[in-house]
């Protein structure tokens, strides 16, 4: 059988999304139907809408989601009907060259559902990050489902599906923040604030939050920032100097760039200590370039790393972080600025663009 649900589709670049009927097919052998309870409005969905990912329109949006397994394919063993899951877009294959050499966080052939969702006229839809969850049901591969404690609120733990995991992982997994280290985070949207939270979890003693918007500093303090710096009007080297001033003149052990512009990466590069680590977790514009004298790369040592999905392994990280949330040690619920209905995604994009929200979360079914 198949299901008709109402979903959010982007038909053309930079055009408003529309609510329309989506046909969700019956699951293939290793597929799962999930009853979506909550789905966060992530900047990546907006990037799909704008045509910044690629031009394979129409797109079915939504990917930062949690829900309950409703139906499973005949060969599914990873989950059972009734399991509470967070959806992920790193369902590792176990066979590619990255997986074979023990680096599944870089898996180059992640699993997706064997069948595509469609419009009523039969037009195939590409689901955002292989998920497509701005609707009451979606179809994914079984390994895109990560079981977590069902006591957790879906609107909170669903955010682990993308942006919050990216930020926390940028600090803990990629930046490898250690107890007693100093950390600076540039850009205080959802990913940046999550990087602040990750730095606190890892035991950083000084956490510097930097942004051009004063309104975001209260958010950053909620997640553990010890210092804030308004960088509006400052040159990159001036921003780097601000970081050095707050770290004994040396620079931070780890600087996380959650903005990904040439000027912010320059601030991060020169704002770190000798042998410090720079982590680029923001997604840069493909046309941007970054230039630095080679002697600076050699002389400063350390590392400049990119962080894909926070270098996470969903089966390891999602249950662990969910448990920390339930123990009161990780305030995932503080990322939820508002909950909305499924027909308010466009308005949520506008609020996100104005910097008014960390996350708007659409509620569906039992979560609504």
TrEMBL record:
Top-rank taxon, per record: Bacteria
GO MF entries: mycothiol-dependent formaldehyde dehydrogenase activity; S-(hydroxymethyl)glutathione dehydrogenase [NAD(P)+] activity; zinc ion binding
PROSITE patterns named among the record's database cross-references: ADH_ZINC (PS00059)
One Pfam assignment: ADH_N
Top enzyme category: oxidoreductase
Cofactor list: Zn(2+)
GO CC aspect terms: cytosol
UniProt keyword annotation of Zinc present: yes
A Gene Ontology biological process term: formaldehyde catabolic process
EC annotation from Swiss-Prot or TrEMBL: 1.1.1.306
Every Enoyl reductase (ER) domain range: 17-358
Keywords carried by this UniProt record: Metal-binding, NAD, Oxidoreductase, Zinc
NCBIfam families in UniProt: mycoS_dep_FDH (TIGR03451)
Xref: PANTHER family: ALCOHOL DEHYDROGENASE, ALCOHOL DEHYDROGENASE CLASS-3
Family (UniProt): Belongs to the zinc-containing alcohol dehydrogenase family.
Protein name: S-(Hydroxymethyl)mycothiol dehydrogenase
């Amino acid at each position: 059988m198949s299901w008709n649900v109402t979903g959010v589709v982007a038909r053309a670049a930079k055009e408003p999304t529309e609510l329309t009927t989506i046909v969700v097919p019956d699951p293939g052998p290793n597929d799962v139907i999930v009853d979506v309870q909550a789905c966060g409005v992530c900047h990546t969905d907006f990037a799909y809408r704008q045509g910044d990912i690629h031009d394979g329109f129409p797109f079915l949006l939504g990917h930062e989601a949690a829900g309950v397994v409703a139906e499973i394919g005949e060969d599914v063993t990873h989950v059972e009907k009734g399991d509470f899951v967070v959806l992920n877009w790193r369902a590792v294959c176990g066979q590619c060259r990255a997986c074979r050499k023990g680096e599944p966080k870089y898996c180059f052939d992640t699993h997706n559902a064997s069948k595509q969702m469609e419009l009523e006229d039969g037009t195939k839809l590409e689901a955002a990050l292989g998920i497509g969850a701005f609707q009451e049901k979606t179809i994914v591969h079984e390994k895109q489902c990560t079981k977590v404690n069902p006591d957790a609120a879906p609107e909170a733990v669903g955010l682990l599906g993308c942006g919050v995991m990216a930020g926390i992982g940028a600090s803990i997994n990629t930046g490898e923040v250690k107890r007693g280290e100093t950390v600076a985070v540039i850009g205080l949207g959802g990913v940046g604030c999550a990087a602040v939270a990750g730095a606190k979890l890892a035991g950083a003693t000084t956490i510097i939050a930097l942004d051009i918007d004063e309104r975001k500093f209260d958010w950053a303090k909620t997640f553990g920032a010890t210092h804030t710096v308004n960088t509006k009007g400052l040159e990159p080297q001036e921003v780097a100097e601000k970081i050095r001033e707050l770290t004994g003149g040396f620079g931070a052990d780890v600087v996380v760039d959650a903005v990904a512009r040439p000027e912010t990466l320059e601030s991060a590069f020169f704002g770190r200590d000798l042998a410090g680590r720079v982590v680029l977790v923001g997604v840069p514009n493909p046309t941007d370039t970054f230039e630095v004298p080679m002697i600076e790369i050699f002389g400063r040592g350390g590392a400049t790393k990119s962080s894909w999905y926070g270098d996470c392994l969903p089966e390891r990280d999602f249950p662990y972080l969910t448990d920390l949330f339930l123990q009161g040690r990780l305030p995932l619920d503080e990322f939820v600025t508002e909950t909305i209905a499924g027909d308010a995604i466009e308005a949520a994009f506008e609020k996100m663009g104005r910097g008014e929200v960390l996350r708007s979360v659409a509620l569906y079914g039992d979560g609504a």
